[in-house]
Design brief:
Layout (H helix, E strand, L loop, with lengths): L3 H14 L5 E6 L9 H7 L5 E7 L2 E6 L3 E6 L4 E6 L2 H4 L17 E7 L4 E6 L5 E6 L23 H7 L8 H6 L9 H10 L13 H20 L40 E5 L2 E5 L14
Antiparallel strand pairs: 1-6, 2-3, 3-4, 4-8, 5-7, 6-7, 9-10
Helix pairs in contact: 1-7, 4-7, 6-7
The structure holds a DNA duplex (16 and 16 nucleotides).
Length: 296
DNA sequence: CACTTGACCTGTCCGC
DNA sequence: TGCGGACAGGTCAAGT
């Protein structure tokens, strides 16, 4: 699921909802996704206060007063959902209805706070993970090694963007966009949307994309990511924010999951093909296929 | 090293 | 209705 805009949305929600809360209990039985020992949890998570929330790429970093941090990756179907204590917070809280549904069968870890509220880590497909480790060791996790720059940072210029694709000339532009070593945070939805906006066919070799087009792609990618954050991200299926609510970006999407519908720019029917091993949405007229034919 | 493919899981949808 | 297969927002390891 979550790509940069979705994870950013969750991050902002957690800042509002869980910072300053104190962990009262932890329920977990998922060695693969949350491998920490009970001893670690007791020592560094129990009684800890949540001090801040950060995002790097598609990962969240929840920092604790114990100088440990919880690092969370939601992968395809992960959710971090906060639920208030109905009795304490009163009826009418935005997600009161969730109280009666969570935990559910996809709940892998439950953090209960001292004030009666709770944070649920749900993950239907169990691809996600959460690790508790000293704050100073967070960036040593394999996930953060070689992770590319944040595309929305002000210092991330068009020039740097173009440079990141050096040595990737023979891969398709879509595969390169999805490669977290090139850029952090882009996934299947925003790769397709940005390539459509820049009128680049996803199967084009990087070396065959003119510099002008790369510069346009830079602009369009950032625009798409920003618009999605403003819309609270995309909810194709599982994604919800920290209040359990869906994002609305897909109502603005131009090609993603719109195969069979007319292109909003030219009316040609949008096609779904396979590029970089992923389902890929293109307008065959706006995004001219490269000469070297790729299997569809 | 650059690049591609399959594996990791669970659930759903589609065709027979 | 039942069953098999393909597919799903992401990374990894292992292959070429």
């Amino acid at each position: 699921m979550p790509e940069l805009p979705e994870v950013e949305t969750v991050k902002r929600g957690l800042e509002e909802l869980v910072v300053n809360r104190v962990v009262e209990s932890v329920a977990f039985d998922w060695p693969k996704g949350f491998p920490n020992s009970q001893t670690d949890v007791d020592a560094f998570l129990l009684k800890a206060e949540v001090t801040s929330i950060a995002r790097r790429g598609k990962a969240l970093i929840i920092t604790l007063s114990t100088n440990y941090a919880l690092v969370v990756h939601l992968k395809m179907t992960g959710q971090l959902v906060f639920v208030s204590d109905e009795a304490r917070f009163g009826a009418g809280h935005p997600n009161d209805s969730l109280i009666h549904h969570l935990p559910d069968r996809s709940t892998r870890v439950t953090l209960r706070f001292a004030d009666g509220s709770a944070l649920f880590f749900n993950d239907q497909r169990k691809f996600g993970w959460m690790k508790l480790l000293p704050e100073g060791q967070v960036m040593d996790l394999p996930f953060f090694k070689n992770l590319g720059p944040e595309p929305l940072e002000p210092e991330f210029t068009s020039k740097i963007f173009v440079q990141r694709f050096k040595n990737r000339g023979r891969s398709t532009i879509k595969a390169a966009l999805l490669d977290q070593k090139v850029l952090a945070g882009v996934g299947n939805i925003y790769a397709d949307e940005a390539l459509f906006a820049a009128k680049i066919h996803p199967a084009t070799r990087v070396a065959d994309v003119p510099k002008k087009k790369m510069e346009l792609l830079y602009e369009e990618l950032r625009t798409v990511l920003q618009k999605s954050i403003a819309a609270g991200g995309s909810s194709d299926k599982n994604y919800v924010n920290a209040e359990g609510k869906k994002g609305s970006y897909l109502t603005f999407a131009k090609v993603f999951r719109l195969e069979g519908k007319p292109c909003p720019r030219c009316g040609t029917i949008i096609e779904k093909i396979r590029v970089a091993g992923r389902g890929t949405h293109v307008c065959p007229y706006c995004q001219k296929a490269p000469k070297t034919k790729v299997k569809e």
